[in-house]
Design brief:
This protein has about 425 residues and is α/β, with parallel strands linked by helices. The chain has 14 helices and 15 strands. α3 packs across α11, α5 packs parallel to α6 and α12 runs parallel beside α14. The termini are far apart. The structure holds 4'-deoxy-4'-aminopyridoxal-5'-phosphate. 4'-deoxy-4'-aminopyridoxal-5'-phosphate binds next to α5.
Length: about 425
Protein backbone atom coordinates (compact mmCIF):
# COMPACT_ATOMS: atom_id res chain seq x y z
CA UNK A 1 0.00 0.00 0.00
CA UNK A 2 2.75 2.47 0.97
CA UNK A 3 4.47 1.79 -2.33
CA UNK A 4 1.23 2.57 -4.10
CA UNK A 5 0.90 5.88 -2.25
CA UNK A 6 4.42 6.95 -3.10
CA UNK A 7 4.09 6.20 -6.78
CA UNK A 8 4.35 9.31 -8.96
CA UNK A 9 2.15 9.64 -11.98
CA UNK A 10 4.08 8.64 -15.04
CA UNK A 11 1.43 8.76 -17.75
CA UNK A 12 1.27 11.92 -19.88
CA UNK A 13 -1.28 14.27 -18.33
CA UNK A 14 -1.65 16.87 -21.06
CA UNK A 15 -4.45 16.39 -23.55
CA UNK A 16 -3.19 16.15 -27.13
CA UNK A 17 -5.18 19.20 -28.17
CA UNK A 18 -2.88 21.38 -26.07
CA UNK A 19 0.23 20.37 -27.98
CA UNK A 20 1.84 23.38 -29.61
CA UNK A 21 -0.50 25.90 -28.02
CA UNK A 22 1.10 26.09 -24.58
CA UNK A 23 3.51 28.93 -25.41
CA UNK A 24 2.25 32.44 -24.79
CA UNK A 25 4.35 35.49 -25.53
CA UNK A 26 2.26 37.75 -23.29
CA UNK A 27 3.50 36.03 -20.16
CA UNK A 28 7.05 37.17 -20.91
CA UNK A 29 6.12 40.73 -21.81
CA UNK A 30 3.76 41.18 -18.87
CA UNK A 31 6.58 40.08 -16.57
CA UNK A 32 9.12 42.40 -18.19
CA UNK A 33 6.70 45.33 -17.91
CA UNK A 34 6.01 44.54 -14.25
CA UNK A 35 9.74 44.46 -13.53
CA UNK A 36 11.01 47.42 -15.55
CA UNK A 37 8.23 49.66 -16.84
CA UNK A 38 7.64 53.16 -15.53
CA UNK A 39 4.97 53.58 -18.18
CA UNK A 40 3.14 50.58 -19.62
CA UNK A 41 1.67 51.15 -23.06
CA UNK A 42 1.85 47.43 -23.78
CA UNK A 43 -1.29 46.33 -21.99
CA UNK A 44 -4.26 46.69 -24.29
CA UNK A 45 -6.91 48.19 -22.06
CA UNK A 46 -7.91 51.60 -20.69
CA UNK A 47 -6.46 52.94 -17.45
CA UNK A 48 -9.42 55.38 -17.22
CA UNK A 49 -12.80 54.44 -15.76
CA UNK A 50 -15.96 53.48 -17.66
CA UNK A 51 -18.54 56.28 -17.96
CA UNK A 52 -20.41 57.29 -14.79
CA UNK A 53 -23.81 56.17 -16.16
CA UNK A 54 -22.46 52.64 -16.58
CA UNK A 55 -20.81 52.44 -13.17
CA UNK A 56 -23.97 53.76 -11.56
CA UNK A 57 -25.99 51.13 -13.41
CA UNK A 58 -23.79 48.39 -11.93
CA UNK A 59 -24.14 49.86 -8.43
CA UNK A 60 -27.93 49.93 -8.86
CA UNK A 61 -27.86 46.33 -10.08
CA UNK A 62 -26.02 45.04 -7.01
CA UNK A 63 -27.55 47.27 -4.33
CA UNK A 64 -31.09 47.74 -5.62
CA UNK A 65 -34.35 46.02 -4.69
CA UNK A 66 -34.11 43.28 -7.29
CA UNK A 67 -32.13 40.66 -5.40
CA UNK A 68 -32.62 38.22 -8.27
CA UNK A 69 -29.79 40.06 -10.02
CA UNK A 70 -27.48 38.14 -7.68
CA UNK A 71 -28.75 34.82 -9.02
CA UNK A 72 -28.45 32.82 -12.23
CA UNK A 73 -30.14 34.30 -15.23
CA UNK A 74 -31.02 32.90 -18.65
CA UNK A 75 -28.05 30.90 -19.98
CA UNK A 76 -27.88 32.51 -23.43
CA UNK A 77 -28.18 36.04 -22.14
CA UNK A 78 -29.96 38.04 -19.45
CA UNK A 79 -33.35 38.96 -21.01
CA UNK A 80 -32.99 42.79 -20.75
CA UNK A 81 -29.55 42.61 -22.37
CA UNK A 82 -30.44 40.36 -25.32
CA UNK A 83 -33.51 42.51 -25.88
CA UNK A 84 -31.60 45.77 -26.17
CA UNK A 85 -28.76 44.17 -28.15
CA UNK A 86 -31.33 42.85 -30.66
CA UNK A 87 -32.82 46.32 -30.94
CA UNK A 88 -29.46 48.10 -31.18
CA UNK A 89 -27.73 45.74 -33.62
CA UNK A 90 -30.90 45.01 -35.59
CA UNK A 91 -30.83 48.62 -36.78
CA UNK A 92 -27.13 48.48 -37.64
CA UNK A 93 -27.38 45.17 -39.48
CA UNK A 94 -30.67 45.90 -41.20
CA UNK A 95 -32.18 42.71 -39.73
CA UNK A 96 -35.23 42.03 -37.61
CA UNK A 97 -33.45 40.30 -34.71
CA UNK A 98 -35.11 37.88 -32.32
CA UNK A 99 -33.49 38.51 -28.90
CA UNK A 100 -33.84 34.85 -27.95
CA UNK A 101 -32.41 33.35 -31.12
CA UNK A 102 -30.19 35.87 -32.89
CA UNK A 103 -28.17 37.07 -29.89
CA UNK A 104 -26.07 35.15 -27.36
CA UNK A 105 -24.25 36.78 -24.45
CA UNK A 106 -20.78 35.44 -23.63
CA UNK A 107 -17.99 35.99 -21.12
CA UNK A 108 -16.31 38.68 -23.19
CA UNK A 109 -15.59 38.49 -26.90
CA UNK A 110 -12.96 35.93 -25.95
CA UNK A 111 -15.55 33.31 -25.04
CA UNK A 112 -17.60 34.24 -28.09
CA UNK A 113 -14.58 33.36 -30.23
CA UNK A 114 -14.02 30.13 -28.31
CA UNK A 115 -17.66 29.09 -28.84
CA UNK A 116 -17.36 29.82 -32.57
CA UNK A 117 -14.30 27.66 -33.07
CA UNK A 118 -15.52 24.82 -30.86
CA UNK A 119 -18.96 24.81 -32.43
CA UNK A 120 -18.05 25.21 -36.09
CA UNK A 121 -14.55 23.86 -36.71
CA UNK A 122 -13.88 20.14 -37.14
CA UNK A 123 -10.71 18.04 -37.33
CA UNK A 124 -9.06 18.85 -40.65
CA UNK A 125 -10.99 22.04 -41.32
CA UNK A 126 -9.01 25.07 -42.41
CA UNK A 127 -9.62 28.53 -41.00
CA UNK A 128 -8.22 31.59 -42.78
CA UNK A 129 -6.63 34.16 -40.46
CA UNK A 130 -5.39 37.54 -41.68
CA UNK A 131 -1.95 38.51 -40.34
CA UNK A 132 -1.19 40.37 -38.13
CA UNK A 133 -3.94 38.97 -35.90
CA UNK A 134 -5.20 39.03 -32.30
CA UNK A 135 -3.08 36.19 -31.02
CA UNK A 136 -5.73 33.89 -29.52
CA UNK A 137 -7.24 32.96 -32.91
CA UNK A 138 -4.43 30.55 -33.73
CA UNK A 139 -4.50 28.40 -30.55
CA UNK A 140 -8.30 28.45 -30.50
CA UNK A 141 -8.47 27.06 -34.05
CA UNK A 142 -5.87 24.42 -33.17
CA UNK A 143 -7.63 23.37 -29.97
CA UNK A 144 -10.74 22.76 -32.04
CA UNK A 145 -8.69 20.45 -34.29
CA UNK A 146 -8.59 22.90 -37.18
CA UNK A 147 -5.66 24.18 -39.21
CA UNK A 148 -5.03 27.92 -39.37
CA UNK A 149 -4.16 29.21 -42.83
CA UNK A 150 -2.52 32.61 -42.77
CA UNK A 151 -2.70 35.41 -45.29
CA UNK A 152 -0.85 38.69 -44.66
CA UNK A 153 -1.85 42.30 -44.97
CA UNK A 154 0.95 43.71 -47.11
CA UNK A 155 2.18 47.26 -46.53
CA UNK A 156 2.16 49.49 -49.58
CA UNK A 157 4.75 52.23 -49.70
CA UNK A 158 2.93 55.52 -49.25
CA UNK A 159 3.85 58.61 -51.23
CA UNK A 160 7.07 60.39 -50.29
CA UNK A 161 6.65 62.46 -47.14
CA UNK A 162 3.15 61.08 -46.58
CA UNK A 163 2.75 59.32 -43.25
CA UNK A 164 1.89 55.65 -43.55
CA UNK A 165 -1.67 54.76 -42.56
CA UNK A 166 -3.13 51.43 -41.50
CA UNK A 167 -5.14 51.72 -44.75
CA UNK A 168 -1.85 51.16 -46.63
CA UNK A 169 -1.78 47.58 -45.30
CA UNK A 170 -3.87 45.55 -47.73
CA UNK A 171 -4.69 42.03 -48.77
CA UNK A 172 -3.40 40.86 -52.13
CA UNK A 173 -6.62 39.68 -53.84
CA UNK A 174 -4.96 36.82 -55.72
CA UNK A 175 -3.10 35.68 -52.62
CA UNK A 176 -6.29 35.75 -50.55
CA UNK A 177 -8.20 33.80 -53.22
CA UNK A 178 -5.44 31.17 -53.28
CA UNK A 179 -6.05 30.37 -49.59
CA UNK A 180 -9.65 29.26 -50.16
CA UNK A 181 -10.13 25.60 -50.95
CA UNK A 182 -12.17 22.47 -50.31
CA UNK A 183 -11.22 22.33 -46.65
CA UNK A 184 -11.82 26.00 -45.83
CA UNK A 185 -14.55 26.19 -43.20
CA UNK A 186 -14.28 29.76 -41.96
CA UNK A 187 -12.45 33.06 -42.24
CA UNK A 188 -11.76 35.24 -39.22
CA UNK A 189 -12.14 38.94 -39.89
CA UNK A 190 -11.09 41.53 -37.32
CA UNK A 191 -12.06 45.05 -38.35
CA UNK A 192 -11.05 47.44 -36.86
CA UNK A 193 -7.92 45.31 -36.57
CA UNK A 194 -5.80 44.74 -33.50
CA UNK A 195 -2.83 45.46 -33.74
CA UNK A 196 -2.69 47.71 -36.85
CA UNK A 197 -5.84 49.75 -36.31
CA UNK A 198 -6.88 49.01 -39.89
CA UNK A 199 -10.55 49.59 -40.68
CA UNK A 200 -11.35 47.43 -43.71
CA UNK A 201 -12.88 49.40 -46.58
CA UNK A 202 -15.96 48.39 -48.54
CA UNK A 203 -13.94 47.11 -51.51
CA UNK A 204 -11.81 44.86 -49.32
CA UNK A 205 -14.87 43.54 -47.48
CA UNK A 206 -16.60 42.85 -50.79
CA UNK A 207 -13.61 40.83 -51.93
CA UNK A 208 -13.69 38.76 -48.74
CA UNK A 209 -17.48 38.37 -48.94
CA UNK A 210 -17.42 37.21 -52.55
CA UNK A 211 -14.85 34.55 -51.74
CA UNK A 212 -16.81 33.39 -48.68
CA UNK A 213 -19.98 33.09 -50.76
CA UNK A 214 -18.20 31.41 -53.68
CA UNK A 215 -16.60 28.77 -51.45
CA UNK A 216 -19.50 28.51 -49.01
CA UNK A 217 -17.33 29.60 -46.08
CA UNK A 218 -18.38 31.01 -42.70
CA UNK A 219 -17.18 34.39 -41.46
CA UNK A 220 -16.31 34.95 -37.81
CA UNK A 221 -16.28 38.72 -37.54
CA UNK A 222 -14.53 40.12 -34.46
CA UNK A 223 -15.74 43.72 -34.22
CA UNK A 224 -14.82 44.58 -30.63
CA UNK A 225 -13.36 47.94 -31.73
CA UNK A 226 -16.41 48.83 -33.85
CA UNK A 227 -16.97 52.17 -32.08
CA UNK A 228 -13.32 53.23 -32.02
CA UNK A 229 -12.88 54.68 -35.51
CA UNK A 230 -11.29 58.01 -36.35
CA UNK A 231 -11.09 60.81 -38.91
CA UNK A 232 -14.70 60.29 -40.01
CA UNK A 233 -13.97 56.74 -41.17
CA UNK A 234 -16.96 54.36 -41.30
CA UNK A 235 -16.96 50.88 -39.76
CA UNK A 236 -18.75 48.57 -42.20
CA UNK A 237 -20.26 45.36 -40.82
CA UNK A 238 -19.50 42.48 -43.16
CA UNK A 239 -22.80 40.82 -42.21
CA UNK A 240 -24.56 43.61 -44.13
CA UNK A 241 -22.94 42.65 -47.46
CA UNK A 242 -24.87 40.52 -49.97
CA UNK A 243 -24.93 36.83 -49.05
CA UNK A 244 -23.12 37.40 -45.75
CA UNK A 245 -25.81 37.58 -43.05
CA UNK A 246 -26.54 33.85 -43.25
CA UNK A 247 -22.84 32.89 -42.92
CA UNK A 248 -21.53 35.51 -40.46
CA UNK A 249 -21.27 35.60 -36.70
CA UNK A 250 -20.64 39.15 -35.51
CA UNK A 251 -18.83 39.47 -32.20
CA UNK A 252 -18.39 42.45 -29.91
CA UNK A 253 -18.13 43.26 -26.22
CA UNK A 254 -18.74 45.79 -23.49
CA UNK A 255 -15.02 45.72 -22.70
CA UNK A 256 -14.09 47.96 -25.63
CA UNK A 257 -17.53 49.49 -26.18
CA UNK A 258 -17.85 50.91 -22.65
CA UNK A 259 -14.20 50.86 -21.51
CA UNK A 260 -14.98 48.08 -19.02
CA UNK A 261 -12.76 45.15 -20.01
CA UNK A 262 -12.90 43.60 -16.55
CA UNK A 263 -16.64 43.06 -16.67
CA UNK A 264 -16.22 40.43 -19.36
CA UNK A 265 -19.57 40.89 -21.03
CA UNK A 266 -19.50 40.04 -24.73
CA UNK A 267 -21.99 38.84 -27.34
CA UNK A 268 -22.53 37.20 -30.69
CA UNK A 269 -25.15 38.20 -33.23
CA UNK A 270 -26.14 36.03 -36.18
CA UNK A 271 -28.67 33.65 -37.68
CA UNK A 272 -30.10 31.12 -35.25
CA UNK A 273 -29.01 28.32 -37.60
CA UNK A 274 -25.40 29.18 -36.66
CA UNK A 275 -25.93 30.42 -33.12
CA UNK A 276 -27.69 27.21 -32.07
CA UNK A 277 -24.35 25.42 -32.19
CA UNK A 278 -22.65 28.14 -30.16
CA UNK A 279 -25.43 27.70 -27.61
CA UNK A 280 -24.53 24.02 -27.30
CA UNK A 281 -20.90 24.85 -26.48
CA UNK A 282 -21.87 27.67 -24.14
CA UNK A 283 -24.42 25.58 -22.26
CA UNK A 284 -21.92 22.80 -21.75
CA UNK A 285 -19.02 24.95 -20.61
CA UNK A 286 -19.57 28.43 -19.16
CA UNK A 287 -23.37 28.44 -18.84
CA UNK A 288 -23.64 32.20 -18.40
CA UNK A 289 -21.96 35.48 -17.68
CA UNK A 290 -22.42 37.45 -14.40
CA UNK A 291 -26.03 38.63 -14.11
CA UNK A 292 -25.40 42.06 -12.54
CA UNK A 293 -22.79 42.92 -15.17
CA UNK A 294 -25.24 41.98 -17.93
CA UNK A 295 -27.95 44.10 -16.30
CA UNK A 296 -25.60 47.11 -16.13
CA UNK A 297 -24.53 46.71 -19.77
CA UNK A 298 -28.20 46.54 -20.77
CA UNK A 299 -28.73 49.88 -18.97
CA UNK A 300 -25.64 51.27 -20.69
CA UNK A 301 -27.03 50.43 -24.12
CA UNK A 302 -30.40 51.93 -23.16
CA UNK A 303 -28.59 55.15 -22.21
CA UNK A 304 -26.62 55.18 -25.47
CA UNK A 305 -29.63 54.31 -27.63
CA UNK A 306 -31.42 57.41 -26.36
CA UNK A 307 -28.44 59.56 -27.36
CA UNK A 308 -27.49 58.14 -30.76
CA UNK A 309 -26.29 60.86 -33.08
CA UNK A 310 -26.19 63.46 -30.30
CA UNK A 311 -23.21 65.27 -28.83
CA UNK A 312 -23.40 63.41 -25.51
CA UNK A 313 -23.40 59.93 -27.12
CA UNK A 314 -20.72 58.03 -25.20
CA UNK A 315 -19.54 56.19 -28.31
CA UNK A 316 -19.00 59.48 -30.15
CA UNK A 317 -17.31 61.09 -27.14
CA UNK A 318 -14.96 58.18 -26.57
CA UNK A 319 -13.85 58.12 -30.22
CA UNK A 320 -13.21 61.89 -30.13
CA UNK A 321 -11.15 61.64 -26.98
CA UNK A 322 -9.17 58.66 -28.22
CA UNK A 323 -8.39 60.37 -31.51
CA UNK A 324 -6.82 63.21 -29.53
CA UNK A 325 -4.78 60.72 -27.50
CA UNK A 326 -3.71 58.95 -30.70
CA UNK A 327 -2.45 62.20 -32.23
CA UNK A 328 -0.63 63.15 -29.08
CA UNK A 329 1.16 59.80 -28.80
CA UNK A 330 2.08 59.97 -32.49
CA UNK A 331 3.79 63.33 -31.95
CA UNK A 332 5.70 62.00 -28.93
CA UNK A 333 6.90 58.92 -30.84
CA UNK A 334 7.90 60.92 -33.91
CA UNK A 335 10.00 63.25 -31.75
CA UNK A 336 12.30 60.38 -30.77
CA UNK A 337 12.59 59.01 -34.32
CA UNK A 338 9.90 56.33 -34.54
CA UNK A 339 7.59 56.31 -37.57
CA UNK A 340 3.96 55.73 -36.59
CA UNK A 341 1.47 54.05 -38.89
CA UNK A 342 -1.63 56.22 -38.38
CA UNK A 343 -4.36 53.87 -37.13
CA UNK A 344 -7.85 54.42 -38.57
CA UNK A 345 -9.39 52.68 -35.58
CA UNK A 346 -8.84 50.75 -32.29
CA UNK A 347 -6.76 52.17 -29.47
CA UNK A 348 -3.52 50.76 -30.78
CA UNK A 349 -0.75 52.44 -32.68
CA UNK A 350 2.00 50.57 -34.47
CA UNK A 351 5.31 52.35 -35.07
CA UNK A 352 8.31 51.49 -37.23
CA UNK A 353 11.42 51.33 -35.04
CA UNK A 354 14.00 50.40 -37.68
CA UNK A 355 15.82 53.70 -37.00
CA UNK A 356 17.01 52.17 -33.71
CA UNK A 357 18.75 49.15 -35.23
CA UNK A 358 22.18 50.24 -33.97
CA UNK A 359 20.99 50.89 -30.39
CA UNK A 360 19.89 47.35 -29.68
CA UNK A 361 22.56 44.73 -29.05
CA UNK A 362 22.81 42.01 -31.70
CA UNK A 363 21.81 38.53 -30.64
CA UNK A 364 24.04 36.28 -32.77
CA UNK A 365 22.52 32.92 -33.58
CA UNK A 366 19.11 33.94 -32.26
CA UNK A 367 16.04 33.90 -34.48
CA UNK A 368 14.32 36.42 -32.24
CA UNK A 369 12.86 39.16 -34.44
CA UNK A 370 14.36 42.64 -34.09
CA UNK A 371 11.09 44.15 -32.82
CA UNK A 372 11.03 41.71 -29.93
CA UNK A 373 14.63 42.49 -28.99
CA UNK A 374 13.85 46.19 -29.33
CA UNK A 375 10.77 46.02 -27.07
CA UNK A 376 12.81 44.25 -24.37
CA UNK A 377 15.65 46.74 -24.73
CA UNK A 378 13.24 49.68 -24.53
CA UNK A 379 11.49 48.54 -21.37
CA UNK A 380 14.79 47.70 -19.64
CA UNK A 381 16.63 50.87 -20.68
CA UNK A 382 13.88 53.46 -21.02
CA UNK A 383 11.16 52.12 -18.75
CA UNK A 384 8.58 52.21 -21.55
CA UNK A 385 6.65 49.01 -22.31
CA UNK A 386 5.13 48.12 -25.70
CA UNK A 387 4.49 44.87 -27.61
CA UNK A 388 6.44 43.73 -30.69
CA UNK A 389 4.32 43.33 -33.82
CA UNK A 390 5.86 39.88 -34.38
CA UNK A 391 3.71 38.69 -31.44
CA UNK A 392 0.77 39.03 -33.83
CA UNK A 393 2.24 36.74 -36.51
CA UNK A 394 2.31 32.96 -36.78
CA UNK A 395 5.62 31.20 -36.07
CA UNK A 396 7.11 31.06 -39.57
CA UNK A 397 6.11 34.67 -40.32
CA UNK A 398 7.44 36.36 -37.18
CA UNK A 399 10.43 37.79 -38.99
CA UNK A 400 8.51 39.03 -42.04
CA UNK A 401 7.75 42.43 -40.55
CA UNK A 402 9.88 42.33 -37.42
CA UNK A 403 10.54 46.06 -37.14
CA UNK A 404 7.38 47.44 -35.58
CA UNK A 405 6.02 47.76 -32.05
CA UNK A 406 2.48 48.28 -30.79
CA UNK A 407 1.48 50.92 -28.24
CA UNK A 408 -1.92 51.28 -26.56
CA UNK A 409 -3.15 54.87 -26.25
CA UNK A 410 -6.33 54.26 -24.21
CA UNK A 411 -4.59 55.95 -21.30
CA UNK A 412 -5.15 58.83 -18.88
CA UNK A 413 -3.54 62.16 -19.76
CA UNK A 414 -1.03 61.65 -16.93
CA UNK A 415 0.08 58.31 -18.39
CA UNK A 416 0.57 59.80 -21.86
CA UNK A 417 2.40 62.75 -20.29
CA UNK A 418 4.75 60.35 -18.48
CA UNK A 419 5.36 58.50 -21.76
CA UNK A 420 6.09 61.81 -23.46
CA UNK A 421 8.60 62.70 -20.70
CA UNK A 422 10.45 59.43 -21.30
CA UNK A 423 10.52 60.03 -25.06
CA UNK A 424 11.67 63.66 -24.68
CA UNK A 425 14.49 62.62 -22.37
CA UNK A 426 15.45 59.86 -24.81
CA UNK A 427 15.50 62.41 -27.63
CA UNK A 428 17.84 64.68 -25.66
CA UNK A 429 20.15 61.77 -24.87
CA UNK A 430 20.30 60.96 -28.58
CA UNK A 431 21.12 64.57 -29.42
CA UNK A 432 23.92 64.73 -26.82
CA UNK A 433 27.35 63.92 -28.26
N1 LIG B 1 -10.84 40.47 -30.00
C1 LIG B 1 -9.88 41.39 -30.10
C2 LIG B 1 -9.41 41.82 -31.46
C3 LIG B 1 -9.31 41.95 -28.95
O1 LIG B 1 -8.34 42.85 -29.06
C4 LIG B 1 -9.78 41.52 -27.69
C5 LIG B 1 -9.23 42.07 -26.39
N2 LIG B 1 -7.94 42.52 -26.40
C6 LIG B 1 -10.79 40.55 -27.63
C7 LIG B 1 -11.30 40.06 -28.81
C8 LIG B 1 -11.31 40.04 -26.33
O2 LIG B 1 -12.34 40.83 -25.86
P1 LIG B 1 -12.98 40.65 -24.41
O3 LIG B 1 -12.15 41.41 -23.45
O4 LIG B 1 -14.35 41.21 -24.56
O5 LIG B 1 -13.01 39.19 -24.11
Amino acid sequence: LSLHLQAKMSRPVQARRLEGVDQNIWVEFVKLAATYATVNLGQGFPDFPPPAFLREAFVRAVSGENHMLHQYTRAFGHPPLVKILAEFFGKLLGQELDPLNNVMVTVGAYQALFCCFQALVDEGDEVIIIEPFFDCYEPMVKMAGGTPVFVPLRPKVSGAGKPMSSADWQLDPAELASKFGERTKALVLNSPNNPLGKVFGRGELQLIAELCVKHDVLCISDEVYEWLVYDGKEHIRIATLPGMWERTISISSAGKTFSATGWKVGWTVGPSRLLQHLRTVHQNSIYHCATAAQEAVAMGFRWELERRGQADSYFAQLARELQGKRDRLMRSLEAVGMTPIVPEGTYFLVADVSAFASDVPEAPGSHEPFDSRFAKWMVKNKGLAAIPLSAFYSGPHKNDYGRFIRFCFAKEEATLEAANDILQKWKQEKAAP
